[in-house]
Design a protein that fits this description.
The protein is α/β, with parallel strands linked by helices. It has six helices and nine strands. A five-stranded mixed beta barrel has the order 5-8-7-6-9. It is an enzyme of class 2 (transferase).
Length: about 270
Amino acid sequence: MNAKTIDITTSFLKEKGFLHPEIGIVLGTGLGQLVNHLTIECEINYTDIPNFPVSTVEFHSGKLIFGTFENKKIVVMQGRFHLYEGYSLQEITFSIRVLRALGIQKLLISNAAGAINLDFKKGDLMLIEDHINLQGGSPLAFANVSEFGERFTDMSEPYNLNLRHSIVEIAKNQNITLHKGVYAAVVGPQLETKAEYRYLKIIGADAVGMSTVPEVIVANHLGLPVLAVSVLTDECNPDDLKPVNIPEIIAIAGEAEPKMITLFKALIKNI
């Protein structure tokens, strides 16, 4: 990781028209519909961006999109990167550093996750209030990290309180169920065993997924306020565990996404 690489990528994107974005959005698995509400000014495939990883997951489209959303300039990552694709934690979060260098002041993240808390149901939304990093490393664990921010980054409140309070009020006003909970990040790509689901519940997780936490750590490292919402796509009951059905998970994410878009639209309008 070095500043020159970030500068090269940022300069390239500015030349392509990615100018002065206020807000960055990362769209997770099955969550690509938000861009249909965007007045697009420019978009580019990850494959065409210098130094960018390439999304290898078939249901991640792999585009960076810039435009206007609720009268704000935003840049959207339509598709993200994961450890299970073979990338390092530094590669996974390179894009967050580039978004910050482009000028974003807030970061909104979405993901698809499994519900460990069995009071939560498929198709519900969960506001992430805290997380557990079970990915076996840190995106800040590299030699010259201090060139980019404080090495020993505080994580006492990784998800911005003001943004959280705002979206909770919006959910109440819109009559949208928005649970609050703890997200556990695992490596994947295999799904969890019954014993692992029991373990996750014991240690305090309400939902589990394979992303988000590295991006949130780097956002905090950069002093970038961040908010994250999970779309709960399956119920992880170890006493009644069904074989994983990926098409069903993608379908449930798509069905629940309009609720997330409603919340994000109102939040961005109020920022």
